[in-house]
Design goal:
153 residues; binds calcium ion; mainly alpha
């Protein structure tokens, strides 16, 4: 076999290597969706999830609502912090965890998710899942799961 005959095989081998590297890199960057990532998104979008924009609405009509959850203005300003942390190449995880630490209950998280969806016309939790690695997402979920449902109960 001449050297020229090997060239197409060398190109093919190179392409296979680049494709495989690219796959893992894309997954790392959140550009390629894994089955796990999809399952997490579905779970977090369910109405009974604190990350859902609808969770807090279950408490919306309780008369003492003012004390149960952050108000609309606070929710919008916290949603903006999250947007600024994700809406560029890369992710400012510390800023997002900071917002989660400010949330004193699951309704606060849901209220921010609701404001985020209204302001930016995209799912808060889908965007988070795209920006975070799975271990970062699990850390965020653990933080939120430890919170009470509302501020006063
Ligand atoms: Ca980003």
């Amino acid at each position: 076999m001449k050297n020229e005959d090997l060239l197409p095989w060398a190109i093919l081998a190179g392409a296979v290597i680049v494709y495989n590297l690219g796959g893992s890199l894309f997954e790392k960057l959140g550009l390629k969706e894994s089955a796990d990532g999809k399952a997490i998104k579905e779970q977090l979008n369910a109405t009974n999830s604190a990350f859902s924009p609808n969770f807090w609405k279950g408490y919306k009509y309780i008369p003492t609502t003012a004390n149960l959850v952050i108000n609309a203005a606070t929710a919008s300003s916290w949603a903006k912090v999250v947007r600024d942390a994700v809406n560029w190449p890369g992710t400012d995880e510390a800023k997002i965890y900071g917002i989660f630490r400010s949330c004193k209950c699951k309704c606060d998280v849901s209220r921010v998710a609701d404001a985020y969806g209204v302001l930016y016309n995209e799912s808060f939790v889908d965007r988070l899942a795209d920006e975070f690695t799975e271990s970062e997402m699990k850390q965020a979920i653990a933080m939120i799961n430890s919170l009470p449902a509302t501020r006063t109960k």
